[in-house]
Each structure stands twice: as structure tokens, then as C-alpha cells.
Amino acid sequence: MKRMGTLRQLSDLSHFSGAARLRELLAADPAIKVRCSPDGRHLLLLRSPGAPCPQLLVAVRGSDAELERAWPAGHPSPLDAFFLPWPARPALVLVWESGLAEVWGAGVGPGWRLLRSTELCPAGGAYVVAVAVLRGRLVWCEERQAGAEGQLGPPAAFSHCVCFRTLEPNGEGGTNLGRTHVLLHHCPSFGLLASRKDLFLVPTATTWPGVGHILLTWSPGKGKVMVVAPCLGLSHCKSLNPVRGDTWDFRTLLRGLPGLLSPMKPLTVHTWAPTPQGLLLLDFRGTVSLVQTHGGTRTVGTLQEAPVGLAGSAALGTFHGTLACVLGSTLELLDMGSGQLLERKVLSTDRVHLLAPPAPGMEDEEELETRGGLRLLSALGLFRVGWEAPQGLEVPSAEDLVFEEACEYYQRRSLRGAQLTPEELKHNSTFRAPQALASILQGHVSPSTLVTTLRAELRDYRALDQLKAHLVAGDDEEAGWTELAEHEVARLLRTELMGDQLVQLNTVFQALPTAAWGAVLRALQLQPDGNGRLRSHAPPDVWKKVLGGTSAGKEPPNGILPLFELLCQCLCRLEPRWLPPFVELAQQQGGPGWGAGGPGLPLYRRALAVLGEEETRSEALELELLLGSGRPKAVLQAVGQLVQKEQWQRALEAGLALGPSSPLLRSEIFKLLLAEFARHRRLDAYLPHLRRLCPPDLTPAELLLLIRTHLPDELEPPTPFPKPGTEPPLTVGLLRALLEQTGAQGRPLGPVLSLYEDILCDPGTPPPTPPRGPMTTLQTSDHPVLEAWAPSGQGLCVTDTG
After folding, report:
1. What range(s) does the BLOC-2 complex member HPS6 C-terminal domain occupy (predicted)?
2. For residue 538, how many C-alpha atoms fall within 13 Å in the half-sphere facing its CB?
3. Pairwise CA distance, residues 543 & 785, whole Å
4. Most buried of 59, 138, 721, 745, CB within 10 angstroms?
């Protein structure tokens, strides 16, 4: 069904204070400036300097007194006036061309009163040409004395600068004014327009033609300025954060941006309009374009009628993807995406003003009814333009929505094939939760009991709603998004983390990984212990939620990661050095089916899968995960990799780090390193560590047998000394320490069990000296004494030296 645009009257202005004067000014002066307060309750009308009295009128909806000011001849009226986004009380700032600024407030007492007066140009010789208010900042463009240097153009063309000061409420009746910050030096005359998040610096009729095709967008929340030339299709982004002391000389800025100074005609724009999407501009051909905050420019559409000269009035605004343009007495609605004309209406007056929508979170009950459209103000009243819902569309009640949502929830958890229906939930006593919630919504529970029960939840939701309102308004954007992400992760961790909740958690981690990890850090109560490890005081049910959610051999659906893999991926991005301690801590937690001790994949394997393929993953992280896993195969794999890289110290430390509860694993690591010791001499310096790793039950015979197995094949007969340039072979001297180690550890108290153990045994005294005499060949039958001594291996002949 096709939707229809509606123009509905909200008020005839009779409920505003000073209604007669309000209608009179709106009907008399087509060039009057109209501003609306952030809460939508105040209307400000300011006439141009030199206009008849009164020049300023602030009308209030309700019984509060209006503010009316008039300046006699010879006393200039304000250049511009703005409401300040102060939620506690309404306030406005008036700025004169001379640089005088006055802050007025209401709500403390009856009527309006002057809160603060200051000079924006205290040095003198300067005057303000444009002013805007952006997120509590008063920004102005002032013209100063022209300097002697004018390398880019005439000196007078670049005699302006753009400055700002912060404005904050102080107590019940004061105002804090920050110091002056200069954004741009030596710039041309710029007009200033502000949306809720961005400031647009646009060329005016007095801007030097050589730069009349250039405009700038300053985003304080991002600390950047975008220089755009819409006619050239060029844009350049530069850092501009006054908090860090950033400032730019406009001429220097342009010299560093190639292509922007190409000879072009100045922009011929009839009307500018800031919106949340960017800056709208209407040219004299009736074409509406949008300069987006990232620098891109696109055509939105073309109006049926084009503006006739500068005298014709025009106003632009957007709502729900729709562009609204009031040109004279015609209202046209265009689709922002396609530029198609949706509706065209002829109004009864040509003096219509589009009002900015109230700031999110500051609407009252009446304003909430008009949300989703644009408000039009004229002398005939206050109107709302929006889209009318199709007739016959029934809005379900709150109780029906409860049971429909519960159906979807229970169906996801149900194992039966039958489809649940809302009627079944209403009458089946098994499903008590949706029935209890429906009873609350129907009013069966007293308000006091309900408020008492939900007090903490209501407080949290109120704080969250206020935070979202500040984000939409663009206040402290980075900190706000961080806090919002932390709230969302904390909320999701209290759910079952399945389906939509897990998808949403993945989205938060992808968009704001630092804030999401901070929320998990608090939920798990993780703290370093000073030894490179982590400890946690989180209850077991939290860890159960972290470690669960995966099955052996199953990939996550649609690229959605379970929580444990999500945390590993986030740590790998933010702090890779803490990933192995985190996995090691997770392995210490757990219970049956938690992922740490269950039948599924080991946690270190799940963490390795997040690092990517073997060819692309970080070798250092992989080694740490394998060594910290405690799994014999993983540790042996890690030691094997260390051996291949000849990192002998780390390989030995990995084996020595294993406690007495892993004798088999220590023995396997020892045999792996002993094989390398037999093959080459690069392990000789680490022999003391290798001795400490030697198994206590290893005998010298077994040691020699292991070494013999891994000795390199001899291609030539052995020689007493190695050839130059070749590696020396393994010698008995090198082996003696290991043989002594095995002999001392496994020496029996009884008879000798090994053929080599008598070599290692030191009796403490030398063997007996054989009798002196002439050299003779030993005869077993004639020398019984030597026969008994000879088998000890000390000698087979005796020489008589006497």
C-alpha cells in the first residue's frame, strides 16, 4: 500500500507566550531568523540589524514569560542568536558583530536574566562575520587586520580566522567560558553552519573567488577536518584536534592538498542546510546535492521548480530517508536514495520555516507525538509533515507482542516438531514467564510493587537511554560508544549466548574490540599475578558460558565465533602476549562439557584455529600455546619446532618446567635432545641442563645404546684428530658427565649389573702395584696373583725397570 504524506497542524501558536507578537513577526519579515530550543518548548526570532523593533523575541510554550529585546537606533542589534544544549534549563547566547557575547538563562527565577557577558575579540580591530553553536562550543569567524604577506591571494582575502570557546553551565546561575582556540589562521570569509556533530565552513559572497569552490567540515568527535571541492569531486582529510593543540594556516593547508586549487568557478548555492547525513545545498537550477561527512558528494534530486534569485525563500530538511524542501509556497518530498519525487503540496503561505527536531532524550510528551517528521512554522501555526501509516494496519497490543516473542524464544529451545502458538502459551500453565509478564502489562500488579521489583533495572535502562541520547547528540562520542559497548557486552553475557545474542556479540567485538574486551575483563575479573600469568575470581557459571558453545569437528555457522574463540581473536588483535596466559587460565577452569575437560577440541586447538592457517599464523604465539597446553603431544610438537630452529635453551627449559608428575614426557624430551647431542656438537654448551633432564631410571647401558642409535654414519675410518673445517665427533670425555649421572642415579647396592659401571666406579685408592722383575709374558698357571688382578682391566703386562 502506498504511503501518503500528511501535513497536520499541531498548534495555532496560541499556547505560546507572546503569541500575537510571534504571529506579527513571522508575517512581517520573510528574512527573520528562527531557532528552536533543544527541548522544543522555546522559539527564538531574530530580525536582521536595522530592522524595526523589536529585534529579538523568545516565545515559550506554556505560562512562562517571553523574552523581548529592542535596540534603539545607533545601537546595533545582535548578529545571531542560538539556544545552548543545556538539559537543566533553557539558555541562549547572543553575539554582536563587535565581538560582544551575552549568555541569557531562564528557569532559575521568573523571566530571563543575563548570566554572562564577554568579549570574543578582546584585542580590538576585529569584528565577527559569522557564528554558530556546536555541541557546547561557540564558534565564530572574525576578520582581523590584513597582514603584509599574501602569497596565495590578496592580503585582504585571507584576513579572517575561525575560533571557538566552550560554554558550560556552572551551578544555578553561572556560566563557564573556556579559553579561545584558533582552528584556522589566514582564511577567507566563511559562513558557519552546525549540525549536532559537525561544523561546516562554507564560502560566502565575499569569499575570494580563487577558493570559492572549497568548503570544510570539522568533526570535533573525530578530531579531523575534511577539505572538499564538490565541483572537482576531490576531498582531503587532515587532523584538527584543538585538545592536542592542532591548528592550521588555511594557505598552508591548501598548498599541501594537490588539485584543490585548480581554476574553478565559485559555488553558486542558493540555500545551505546542515543535516545528520551531511550538508545539503540547493543551487539555482533546482538541484539538491549532499556533501557527506566523509567528503563524498552526491546528487539527491532535482526539484520541480528552481529558486528565482536570492530573494526567494527556501528551506531544506530530512526525515526517515525523505528530503523535504519548502520553496516559496511549495512543499516537495523526494526520496533520498533515488531522488524520485514522492509528493508535492501547495501551501497557503510563502513564509515557512523548517524547525530542527528536538535533541534526542530532551523531548516532552507533546514532542514525542511529532517524532518521525519535520515541523513547519508560519504565522498560521505550527505544522508537522510526515508519512501517514496505511489504513487498516492494526498495531498489536503489548500482551500480544509478549506471547509472540515468547513463541519465537521457546520454539528455538524446543526439541519437538510441533509449532507453538500464542494461544497455546496463553492457556498452557507450563509457560509461566510470558503469562506473568502479560499480567504485569495488563495492570494486575500494583504500580508500587512493580516499581520496587524493577527499580534497579529501570535505573540501568534510564542511564542507558541517556547515554544513547548523548551519542545521538554527538557529546563525547568516543567515550560514549565505549560505554555503550561495555553495557551491551555485559548484558549479552547475562543471556544464553545462542543465535541472535551470539551474532550481536560478534558484531560488538568487530566494531569496538577494545571496549568489548574491557567489559569481558571486568566480568571475568582478570588480573595479572606479576609472573606473566593471569588469575580470575569469576564464578564458575561465567567461565562455563565462556568455554562452552562449540562441538568437536563443527565450524561456527556463518562465520559467527563462539565466545571463547571471540575472546582469543580479540586478544590476538589487541594484546597478543596475553593470549597464551589466558588460554592457560581457561584450561584450569572447567567441568564436564565446558570445553576445557569435555570431549570436544582442547582449548589450545580452539585458540590455534583462531590464529589462521599454519602458514600464516604467528609462530611465537603458536609455540606459547603449545607449551602452555600441558598436553604431551602439543608439548612434544613445540619442542620439536624449537629443535628445528636450534633454540636449545628454550627446548631444555620446556622440559625442565615439567614437574615430577610428567616423567614420560620429560623422558621423551630428553631422548629427543639426546639424539641431537649425538649428531652434532651444538648442544655441548647446554650439557649441564641436559644432565638435569636425564631420567633417574636410565642406566649407562641404555644411555650408550640411545647414543649409538643416533650417531652419524662414518664414511671414512676414524682419525685421532678431525680434519679442518669438519665438526669434531662425540668423545668419551663429553659422555663422561652423562655416564656419571646415570651411574650415580641407578647404581645398585648389590653386584654389578652393567658391563660399564665398574668403569664409572671410583674406589678411592689406586690398584695394587705389580711386583718388579724382568719382563715376562704372563702365564696364568705360574702367576696366580696376577691372574686374579688382570681382569680388572688395569694392564696385561709388567715391565721390570730394576
Report:
1. 400-772
2. 24
3. 79
4. 138
